Amino acid sequence: xxxxxxxxxxxxxxxxxxxxxxxxxxxxxxxxxxxxxxxxxxxxxxxxxxxxxxxxxxxxxxxxxxxxxxxxxxxxxxxxxxxxxxxxxxxxxxxxxxxxxxxxxxxxxxxxxxxxxxxxxxxxxxxxxxxxxxxxxxxxxxxxxxxxxxxxxxxxxxxxxxxxxxxxxxxxxxxxxxxxxxxxxxxxxxxxxxxxxxxxxxxxxxxxxxxxxxxxxxxxxxxxxxxxxxxxxxxxxxxxxxxxxxxxxxxxxxxxxxxxxxxxxxxxxxxxxxxxxxxxxxxxxxxxxxxxxxxxxxxxxxxxxxxxxxxxxxxxxxxxxxxxxxxxxxxxxxxxxxxxxxxxxxxxxxxxxxxxxxxxxxxxxxxxxxxx
Length: 372
What we know:
Elements: E1 5-10, E2 17-24, E3 32-40, H1 43-51, H2 59-85, E4 94-97, E5 100-105, E6 110-114, H3 117-124, E7 128-130, H4 134-138, H5 148-155, E8 161-166, E9 169-176, E10 179-188, H6 190-201, H7 210-213, H8 219-228, H9 247-260, H10 268-290, E11 296-300, H11 307-316, E12 321-323, H12 334-347, H13 355-358, E13 368-370
Parallel strand pairs: 1-4, 4-7, 8-11, 11-12
Antiparallel strand pairs: 1-2, 2-3, 5-6, 7-13, 8-9, 9-10
């Protein structure tokens, strides 16, 4: 297996933990997951990362410390992967490490992923490839989403399908045999669901969507969410993150809506149920508008484990909706596997930055290498 082994590390917008995979790319179209681990984000680090999404005191110092702490967590994940697979660090070609996005402003020409790849290289003794987004942004692109090129390689385009990643933010990839690939963010997913659940239950996420399932959707509130946010009507390419969809976004709109509807009493579970439909509706609207003819929807990311969200998305779609597990790829592994693939793409000089997805002026080789 030596010569084809890559590690992929992903800590997403949900900030709930680190997903890591060790994959064999002897056949790049059918990469084999050799081992996988998921590590919970330590509460202190999670709180720091969330706080760094907005301006604050001494944020440069705090960001540097958070990047170092994240690289230590990444190192632990790599150590566990190698131990599970009984493979030496010297057998690994490279680690693809995404880092933690805390600011994303392609309109201003920058994106910030906290990371410490040089330290990760020192701790693991393995080359690290990082900084995947900035090259595409420099070429005028959104720098996101990065995974459509991988989705195309992994899931092909023989069948008209949409691949939906339900992470903190939701994004879709259109794969169609008679059309160019496109991919873009569609709006919030777990970022708002997790915030509202933790605020009212103390639990970091709504397991299987059970808590929200006890509420009733308020259609008027749903319409207000969709109509009051101009971002939903933007045409792709587009991307977003916690810079826009955050606690303040939700709390402000809830207050505005409640002030205008004083006689309507909403329970916290009603709002959670409405947020579930907001995620599903915004995804479905995007597919219907920009991926007409889709015959199946494949779902990956943490949201694929949310039974209520999956059930709601199926109601919104006229075609089958299923997790990527049905095609042999664990839904929870897809994003980490994508960053292993992006490291492989860097080494093979495969241009993973796709103008048709991000709006960049030209294709780009994504990433920067730190040698062990």
